Amino acid sequence: MQIAVIGLDLAKNVFQVHGIDDSGQAVLKRKLRRSEVLPLFAGLAPALVGIEACHTAHYWGREIAALGHDVRLMPPQFVKPYVKSQKNDAADAEAICEAVQRPTMRFVPIKSADQQAVLMLHRTRDLLIRQRSSLISAIRAHFAEFGIVVGQGIRNVERLLALLETAGDQRLPALAAEMLGILAAQLRRVAEQVKEVEVKLLAWHRADETSRRLQSVPGLGPITASAIVATVGDPKQFKSGRQFAAWLGLVPQQRSSGGKERLGGISKRGDGYIRRLLVHGARAIVGWRKRSATHKTPWIERLLARRPTNVATVAYANKLARIAWAIMMHGNRYNPALAFATMP
């Protein structure tokens, strides 16, 4: 039995495989327990293996590729059209087997364990920041219930926390002060953990030459630069900076039909984390250029003259993505004369 193509539907414990031979006939349909997956592929001749990209797909992709198979990951939304009837594990595996053979299919590069480790730093930092924001909001709200309000900003929260140490303040009941003390301790612990993660991220950034080159671009700091490098890996998977920006969802969404072009807001497809970082960086640069009387960028000035600030911000985020791709692709450092040589 010579199997040419295999579709593997991943799960936590029960997996489904669908294999076909060179003529397209199904020769393998089987459910597998987790412990049976690698032994099965180890006993098969090298074949094309398709897997839907998900949180465990990169691990399985590395393991199966190490056994000599050609493993390709695919976005689930591109596999869905190949499901013929009712959705179940067997139908999904068959759809994956069909989709991986399409010549126009878009594949997801398999990330290395080191890439995933760096991205885990980013995900951990992002989670901790959201927890910190949640704690700050809770502390503010609870103080406001007793008529104690301060200005916006994380620094003003310390003024609220200082009240917990003020003896004789009668505005807070003892029980409320005790509960707020628990939240304050948790907030300080989360803030310390954010700093610990950022120290590790900065160390990785300084050790990576490509990440350091990306930081030379105005609007790309160590966090954004390291996230782009760890996520993209090989920039050759994109034909151009335009395609990279489209992959990040920083291009207009199309609803064109009948020869009439209709463009909407940005598509917001792809990696939302990197897109958010790029937009934040772009917003900082655009805002600074607007306020600065001496540091002006003609490209941004011309854009602001004919577009709202938010539109200009996203346009600059798109520009940042293209510049980042060019730097990774060609190994150059940031050159503003080249980056803003043409109008948007």
Question: How large is the share of residues in beta strands?
Answer: 5-15%
- Class of secondary structure makeup: alpha/beta
Rounded mean pLDDT is 90
State the shape: globular
Count of discrete structural domains:
3
Q: Characterize the biggest β-sheet.
A: 5 strands, mixed
Largest beta sheet: strand ordering: 3-2-1-4-5
Question: How many strands in all?
Answer: 7
Share in helix: 40-55%
Name the assembly state: single chain
- The first-to-last residue Cα distance is 56 Å
Which regions contain 5 or more consecutive residues with pLDDT less than 50?
none
Rg measurement, Å: 26 Å
What report would you give on this structure?
The protein has helices at residues 37-42, 57-65, 76-79, 89-99, 113-144, 154-163, 174-207, 209-215, 222-232, 241-247, 272-291, 298-306, 309-330, 336-339, and strands at 5-9, 14-20, 26-33, 48-52, 70-74, 252-254, 263-266. The protein is of the alpha/beta class. The chain has three domains: 5-99, ATPase, nucleotide binding domain (Nucleotidyltransferase, domain 5), CATH 3.30.420.40; 113-207; 209-255 and 267-339, no CATH class. Helix 5 packs antiparallel against helix 7 (174-207), helix 5 (113-144) packs across helix 9 and helix 10 (241-247) crosses helix 13. The mean pLDDT is 90.
